[in-house]
């Protein structure tokens, strides 16, 4: 009797499970072309005064094996369908062309282009970017102080938030600091006011502009001083360069005069004669000068030189 009861219980449970599975299968909308109703004026904004207002075409839709955030249903093959419409504004017939899906497939929502190639690899079977570094990142991706490596998100995250944030602020894990709460931000937007991110208070936009304009002259004066200083330094460099070139040129002339004296240099002798020296040969010259005055009153000088050569 107990055996018969056990068998009856097993059969009843099996029938119940099959019934539930069948109900799930019948209600589960798999990915395939489905007859879809479209509103014409929403799909085609220029067709505002047409009739009928709605049309039916096949569009891909339904579930895939993975979550919709990972995989979605996309059209694989399709063809164009021309649907006639009546234009109530012009009383003429018109038409629209729309794509009618004939087959579908499940595709990844993400693509390899969504991966960060310096740290992630694309996994087609899983439709996700897989982190390459499970334990710790390399030196070029090392986390700074206050951050830790999160292999699930493949990036550095805040190690731990502070025990509490100042008033009107909350912990922002992306910025890794306390920032103004969304409530404060929304309140300032409703009041059409600006937000002071330091105190998290709503302030007038004009006050923010005045604060910015007060800081602007200081920065402008600093830039002007830098420009003047640069001009002065450039001028000094030009003057110093000119002096150096001038001194080098003068030194070069004096040096050449010392190394290369003139070939013929006259000198007066004790007898009143002029002596010319040229290498190892010396010449004594007897100089005689006479002058004549012509009828116009002009004076003409005549010089006679008699030389004696001595070795």
TrEMBL record:
Signal sequence bounds: 1-19
Polar residues compositional bias, start-end: 262-280, 292-311
Keyword vocabulary terms for this entry: Membrane, Signal, Transmembrane, Transmembrane helix
Gene3D superfamilies noted in UniProt: Cystine-knot cytokines (2.10.90.10)
Region (Disordered): 258-311
Record field: transmembrane: 221-245
Database matches in InterPro entries: Cystine-knot_cytokine
Keyword Transmembrane helix recorded: yes
Signal in keyword set: yes
Name of this chain's protein: Platelet-derived growth factor (PDGF) family profile domain-containing protein
Upper lineage: Eukaryota, Metazoa, Cnidaria, Anthozoa, Hexacorallia
């Amino acid at each position: 009797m107990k055996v018969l009861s056990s068998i009856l219980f097993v059969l009843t449970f099996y029938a119940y499970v099959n019934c539930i599975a069948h109900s799930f299968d019948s209600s589960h909308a798999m990915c395939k072309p489905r007859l879809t109703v479209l509103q014409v004026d929403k799909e085609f904004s220029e067709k505002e005064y047409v009739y009928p207002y709605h049309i039916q075409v096949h569009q891909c839709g339904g579930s895939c094996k993975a979550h919709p955030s990972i995989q979605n249903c996309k059209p694989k093959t399709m063809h164009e369908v021309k649907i006639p419409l009546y234009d109530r504004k012009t009383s003429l017939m018109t038409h629209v062309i729309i794509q009618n899906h004939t087959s579908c497939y499940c595709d990844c929502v993400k693509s390899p282009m969504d991966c960060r190639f310096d740290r992630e690899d694309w996994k087609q079977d899983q439709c996700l970017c897989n982190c390459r570094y499970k334990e710790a990142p390399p030196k070029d991706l090392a986390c700074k102080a206050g951050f830790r490596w999160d292999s699930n998100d493949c990036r550095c995250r805040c190690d731990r938030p502070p025990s509490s944030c100042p008033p009107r602020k909350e912990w922002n894990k992306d910025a890794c600091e306390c920032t103004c709460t969304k409530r404060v931000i929304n309140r300032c937007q409703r009041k059409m006011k600006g937000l002071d991110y330091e105190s998290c208070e709503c302030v007038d936009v004009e006050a923010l502009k005045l604060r910015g304009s007060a800081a602007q002259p200081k920065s402008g004066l600093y830039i002007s001083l830098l420009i003047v200083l640069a001009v002065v330094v450039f001028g000094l460099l030009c003057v110093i360069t000119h002096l150096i070139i001038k001194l080098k040129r003068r030194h070069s002339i004096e040096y050449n005069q010392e190394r290369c004296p003139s070939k013929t240099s006259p000198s007066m002798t004790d007898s009143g004669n002029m002596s010319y020296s040229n290498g190892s040969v010396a010449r004594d010259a007897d100089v005689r000068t006479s002058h004549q005055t012509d009828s116009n009153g002009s004076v003409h000088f005549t010089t006679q030189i008699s030389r004696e050569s001595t070795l």
